[in-house]
Specification:
Structural class: mainly alpha
Strand order of the largest sheet: 1-2
Radius of gyration: 30 Å
Order of helices and strands: HEHHHEH
Length: 166
């Protein structure tokens, strides 16, 4: 019984000690969303992605127009052609449709890959800056304010923007 009481006393002391040390932790917040939407490097990356997307879209539209043109032409000429020619044309149109679908899928994958390639270094730079500013100001925790219900503490957003140069 005495051993259990001693164990309970030690556990209680550790619990309240941990609670008081957590209460003393310095916590700040930062609005990562605001930083990311106004950061010049992000805006440049978005322009690059938009330009690439427009290129893919134009090529896709050209392929679709060619496909639709062939269908119209082949439909109009079908009555005057042999079954073998009509079958070959049907196969050609099906192959075109398949290539268009593959192109669209590959274009989406390439856009996602390019977005990841462009965004990863920017995100790493933002995280590094948040960590640097937080440590310089003596904070143990810096939370993203968009995930918080109450942001009534120190806001480091302006400091992080300044550290990033904008």
């Amino acid at each position: 019984m005495m051993k259990q009481l001693k164990t309970l006393l030690i556990a209680t002391t550790l619990f309240f000690g941990a609670q008081s040390s957590f209460a003393q932790a310095k916590i700040a917040h930062v609005d990562v969303n605001e930083i990311m939407t106004k950061m010049p490097a992000i805006l440049d990356a978005q322009k690059q992605l938009q330009k690439l997307g427009e290129t893919y879209s134009a090529e896709y539209n050209t392929m679709v127009q060619e496909y639709q043109g062939k269908i119209k032409k082949y439909d109009a000429e079908a009555a005057g052609q042999t079954d073998a020619i009509n079958q070959a044309r049907q196969t050609e149109v099906q192959d075109m449709a398949k290539r268009i679908g593959e192109y669209q899928e590959n274009a989406q994958k390439e856009l996602q890959k390019k977005e990841g390639d462009l965004m990863k270094p920017i995100l790493d730079k933002v995280k590094e800056s948040i960590s640097k500013v937080g440590k310089a100001k003596g904070y143990q925790y810096v939370l993203n304010s968009t995930d918080l219900l109450l942001t009534d503490g120190p806001d480091l957003t302006a400091d992080v923007k300044k550290d990033l140069g904008f």
